[in-house]
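input
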Amino acid sequence: MSTELLAPLDLAFWHLETDAHPMHLGALAVFSPVPGVAPGELLELLDTRAAAVPRLRMRVRDVLLPVGGAGWFADPDFDVHRHVRRVELGPGDFMAEATRLAGELMEQPLGRGRPPWQMYLLDSAGAGPFAVLVKLHHALADGMRAVAIGAGIFDQIAAAGRGPVRRRSPLPPRPWLPGPSEVAGMAMDRIGGVRRALGVGASVVRASRLDLRGATALTASSSGTRRLATADLDAATVQRIRRAAGGTANDVLLAVVAGALRRWMLERDERLPEADPRALVPVSRRRPGAAPTGNRLSAYLLGLPVGEPDAGERLRLVRTAMDRNKAAGPLRGAGAVAVLADQLPALAHRFGAPLAGSAARMLFDILVTSVPLPRSALSLGGCPLRALYPMAPLARGQSLAIALSTYGGRVQVGLVADGRALPDLDRLSAAVEDELRDMAALLPSVPAPA
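output
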């Protein structure tokens, strides 16, 4: 018996996937070593804690009703050792080797007949740092839910989960058939949803581009390969720029991405595109305190002003555009295309996914997303978490996705690219760090980061 149907957007992500375009997201968590903690102990710890997360024991199976739907079922053959593995890295720079291998592992689709996740312990000989690469299918988790699921491996969250179980008051019995007032409420919600969907649909049509010319690297055909890179930014500098220039920290980071793309294109002697590349900026629709089930996403569309040479003006343009998006709200505009999934029947997702996947390129060029992390210090087996680089999935026809998270006073940036389209991804990650430094230097009241 199914314990939970896949939410409409989860079902869309499940059917959007192909072998060449896997729909999983992930994170590369880097830890500092502690004497006496061996890799075998860490692997056993990962096994135990991952197996204790109920969601990680579930697999997807088709259901009879609704037609075309699917549900989460407990996997009767679940074996955590199929999902958690250790890979010993060769000699050399640890981060370079870890990101190289992580790119190869992110290329590989997750098995669809098992719970759709994998975890890899990446370590090297000696007493150096180690990393854990986590892969979760997008149907299993959005960014916020991925944090909730993945956090179960950390010492602090695992210890909290072993506390006393609070008994909940039994819920009053619920009638099998809804009452008249409930039926009326459901009907009004449905009518409101259809109206929103029609509005978003019209916005999508108006925003779609038939001329897909743009930055050469961002419009290259997909090869199915993956390359990863990371960057680290000083969170205090981001906040100082925000206070000096106004807006939000996310506005500053989006402007940093725009400036980094500009300098990277110029460094590789690429002609700047006539039209600014469009970023899809996801927005969570999850209510505070709500149960973390089902993807609850919308998004904003933002033109990244790579054609503007002045960093201060780029930030102003980003802030103005994001203010306009926020005034309209996350349920309006072409960027809210994800809300359409909630109004489509399951059968439409099953047969319409290939068309929808191919249409993503007509709406946006790059995904830029922020992933919230716990503010408290985290560790695994007593080994402190040093950095966590989130990894976003690449949509069909996309060459680059950028994800950001803040931890330990740093903004960690994970860049995922098509390996053939962007072989020089490391140059782009360096440009991200250089851009923040130069942006801070332009504002007299903001000390440049060290």
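quick obs: The chain is about 35% helix and 20% strand.
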